[in-house]
Amino acid sequence: MNPDAYVEMAHAEASHWWFCGRRAILSHLIDSFDLPAHARILEVGAGTGGNLEMLSAFGRVSAIEMDATARSLATGKTDGRFDIRPGVLPREIPFAGEKFELVCLFDVLEHIDADVETLIAIKPLLADGGRVLITVPAHQWLWTAHDAFLHHKRRYSMSDLRSKAVSAGYAIAKLSYFNSLLFPIAVTERLADKWLGKSPPGANVPANILNRLLGWIFGLERFLVRRVNLPVGLSIVCVLKAER
């Protein structure tokens, strides 16, 4: 990812509506997994560490992050309480021989050329009955300069992610769109930006009232995503189990 994006992320992810809403949705979904006490959890591509505290409510958390700047920011932000190791997907994955009940890739897979190979490579990290929890951006037709700024390789369709997960040897436990309630507004804005050739918007936190409103609307989806698969949205969430 663009190094400037890591710095923006480190400043914004504690309060920006998108990060807060996504954490609320993912936390609610993970709570439905009934993970064992003291579950081991691995976040792959932890960025600047904005999800580590949320994940720690469900078990003992470790992380992988390839970028030294992001690792430093994550370590400082969390006072060094998490084991964050360098690694490059799919070839250089630490924690060899260790097992995790939950492996998370939150908006990571779209940054990797070899996405299927990455899904295959993390399978040995799963404990028996373990899950992989993935989020990715949806709809290639929504590609904008912001995707290029973030060094995305692609946006995913539902069928594409399903096909790649199955080819990597997983059973799909859940596959749903999310960021659905704001979808019409976001599509209009992104297509307008694309047509006008606007620069990437960055991750600046909106004015307080707007930020809280958007976060509240987005966060409402936690009650939906846990129970049903949503038919449309800006992102996709996927829960995988390894075929044995």
Integer count of domains: 1
Order of helices and strands: HHEHEHEEHEHHEHHHE
- Biggest sheet strand order reads 3-2-1-4-5-7-6
Distance between the termini: 34 Å
Task: Give the SSE map.
Layout: H1 3-12, H2 17-31, E1 39-44, H3 52-56, E2 59-64, H4 68-77, E3 83-85, E4 100-106, H5 115-122, E5 126-137, H6 145-149, H7 158-167, E6 170-178, H8 183-196, H9 208-219, H10 222-225, E7 235-242
Parallel strand pairs: 1-2, 1-4, 2-3, 4-5
Antiparallel strand pairs: 5-7, 6-7
Helix pairs in contact: 1-4, 2-9
Task: Please summarize what this structure is.
The chain is α/β, with parallel strands linked by helices and 244 residues long. Helices cover 38% and strands 21% of the residues.
Structure description:
By secondary structure, this protein is an alpha/beta fold. It has a single domain, classed as 3-Layer(aba) Sandwich (Rossmann fold), CATH 3.40.50.150. The chain has ten helices and seven strands. The protein has a seven-stranded mixed β-sheet with strand order 3-2-1-4-5-7-6, sandwiched between helices. It is globular and about 50 Å long. The model has no long low-confidence stretch (mean pLDDT 91).
Features of the shown structure:
10 helices; 7 strands; alpha/beta; Rossmann fold; 244 residues
